[in-house]
Queue: 3 jobs
Job 1
Amino acid sequence: MRLSRYFLPVLKENPADAQIVSHRYMLRAGMIKQQQAGIYSWLPLGLRVLRNIERIVHEEQQRAGHIPVLMPTMQPADLWRESGRYDAYGPEMLRIRDRHDRDMLFGPTNEEMITDIFRAHVESYKQLPMTLYQIQWKFRDEVRPRFGVMRGREFLMKDGYNFDLSYEDAMHAYNRHMVSYLRTYERMGLQAIPMRADSGPIGGDDTHEFLVLASTGESEVFYDAAITDLKFGDREVDFQDRAALAKIVEEWTTPYARTDETHDVALFHKIPAERQKTSRGIEVGQIFYFGTKYSEPMGAKVNTPDGEVAVHMGSHGIGVSRLVGAIIEASHDDRGIIWPEGVTPFHCGIVNLKQGDTATDAACEALYAGLRKKGLDPLYDDTEERAGAKFATMDLIGLPWRITVGPRGLKEGKVELTRRATGDSEELSPDAAVARLAEIYAGF
Ligand SMILES: Nc1ncnc2c1ncn2[C@@H]1O[C@H](COP(=O)(O)OP(=O)(O)OP(=O)(O)O)[C@@H](O)[C@H]1O
Ligand SMILES: [Mg+2]
């Protein structure tokens, strides 16, 4: 992409109404535009990050053996009357009436609808286990939408639902989700800690929330410092291997980690004092096991050799749009965003220090073509702006790598490769810069 032809409406001033850094930077970097309280348009740069997050979520869900579907945002009230949640859900549910006076709603979550799909098409236990998921917009009429996309009213969520024959099978599904989530967040450059949670309005027994530590988080969290040393890394996982998954889950759930809702002071104080940590956290996902809560009243049953059985279910969410903000909260400095390589909107920036100079322009074009040939997606600042302004924009929008091209360096056959996170620079030939970036991104 060439900046002169892109749509990147950056703001020079700090927007007055944005209270936290991710919201400020998302507005300043031209990633989103607010349309109503808690409702945003995604502008091109923001959309690229959102799509990258979606892609990682899809890849990791499918790696775990889960099957994508797409349900509508609009749901009939009658389905929710079957589960008893139409009345129970309260004012967070946006209720709508169509021209035939039928009650509808904009889905805040999809347990009822997925159960309806399941009961319509699945009859035999032989079709289990099954986990279906989607990435779809949700609407919750939050009392206080705030912090930009972190607490929106319309927001993008991955929601997955497992259908299993027994408690043991459902716990394997639970573990599959926990392990796949650990991988998912790490690929986004985040450490998200699974914490024992409270089941809330969805209701259930076993549940963990995944929290990213950040001072602006809405939850108060308590944890054993030992948990922050855990890394998933590139270990191979066989998602069918129950024992192996259970072991990974044990590894991550043994150190104390809880939100204020489930915090147990006595247990916490058993940890060595120097490891007792209190912080704030952003909830970026949650997994639930809730048994037959929906399958029983809605008649989602399968035939087995021993008769009909209501399936054991769980639901598992990832806050896809919230993650864009959470990643910025976890990775920025006072000049702007620092995207982790896994989600960056462009792989690198190219800054032309002397636009219009034949040799400099040609070198930038060659770099641009060379990077694209390696499958990389550069953002080339080919505008007439001053160098200082070009650097400020690149720093603000947070591309992890920048190649700076100017006449002085080119005389020696060199360009400069700079890492956004550290500011470390290195002079090397354009070919070497392309090769280096290709090597870096081969891991993502
Ligand atoms: N209003 C919102 N805006 C953006 N993301 C949200 C919002 N509500 C929930 N999410 C994301 O969707 C994920 C799954 O939804 P879930 O039903 O667990 O939310 P929740 O527990 O009600 O969230 P919260 O406690 O933050 O209100 C959450 O972990 C969170 O990351
Ligand atoms: Mg939750």
Job 2
Amino acid sequence: MTGSGLHDIINSTAFDVARNLTLFVLAVFWLGVAYWVRRDARRRLDDTWLVATATAVALIPIIGPLVYLLFRPPETLADVQSREMEVRALRKALRGPAEAACPVCRSGVHADFLVCPVCTTQLRQPCTQCSKPLEPLWQACPYCATPVGAVVEDLDVALTAEAIAVPQKKKRRAGAQARAS
Ligand SMILES: [Zn+2]
Ligand SMILES: [Zn+2]
């Protein structure tokens, strides 16, 4: 009688210990999963309230964490940031190395544009010798070493000389013809 009673006590104690241990392990696992969800949500969500909601959902045993896994954002915030940086760098590369803005309409223009393609404002003068675009402050073309403006003056002088020379040539020719006849 006493032996069987002791046996019962030992049995029930072993059962209790096993049950308590199982409950303890389950509780640790439950809290561990909720903690993992909170940490994961903070990496993926910008909003404090959304992180709190995700953690609350994760506290529902078994179903909660599964629901979170189904609805969590596919990318972490760090992934999103690096992707945005990549896209920005790509856009910048597409726009060209020297990005500038038109002084009139503020639209993006390249460093080698002569005229704004949007509002047709003259941005640069082409070199009279090699037609490369010249910056307004440049005194000489850096591509062919032609002084800016000098060529135009020379051209003016040349044209003037030509204008003077043509009638003289005509006169000379007329004189020659007169002498010949
Ligand atoms: Zn413009
Ligand atoms: Zn030039």
Job 3
Amino acid sequence: MAIKFSRTFLLRKLHQITGIVPLGAFFFVHMFTNSKAMNGEAAFEKAVQELHDTPFLLFIEIFGIFLPLLFHSIYGVIISSEARSNALGYSYARNWFYFFQRATGIFLFVFILFHILNLRFGLIPGLNLTPVAGNADLSFNIIAAEFQIPWVMVFYMLGIAATAWHLAYGIFLFVVDWGIVIGENAQKYTLYACIALAAALFGVGANAAVSFVRPCGLFPQALCEHKSESKPVSKPTAESKRF
Ligand code: HEM
């Protein structure tokens, strides 16, 4: 007997899948690359240059990042506008988690748009106007200058926290919805593991962000390898901020 799936059902499944692969996978790789800033300008810029040298980069960016991101965020906003959260009516943790899943999704729509225009394309008026794309040799100083502006650093910290929660709780919803984790106890421990994953992802991302304004990020500097030619992070000048 042929099984018929409704269009909404298939779109929901595609929405869940795109959140895990490629977007979730991209976030892990992205935070790993950013963490290279712990070891200074030279180490970070070498990593960015290697990314820029990836064959078929534009193809990977369009089909592996931008299109899945566009679909996941637009369909996510549609789902959020339909969802009725019980968070204010009931105090169950799961209702709050569900509410945060949607709230972080809507916030991320704004944050990621800002972030890509800001660093990838250098198109936010009043901030740095040099794109990181095509300028790997300037990438560390571009980001360091941005992150010395307090509101930008706070906005990025919120973006990292929102992504960490959205991805980790999204993994929980995915494994439950796809019937991978079924029993009540198994779901409880999976939820704990996902909360721990959110905390770990936030820790790694926040440490990477701090590494652009303090060598070795939140860790003692003795733990990091700084090449002697690596310049110390300087305060942004009128020219480096390119107003
Ligand atoms: C420590 C914080 C972060 C830093 C320093 C950072 C840095 C960068 C840089 C430099 C680029 C441009 C890459 C290039 O053109 O070579 C970029 C692109 C991007 N970032 Fe981030 N990022 C951070 C946090 C985030 C977060 C929280 C997200 C949320 C998912 C995110 C998602 C993206 C996306 C989707 C792109 C576009 C990818 C592409 O153009 O290939 N980033 N980021």
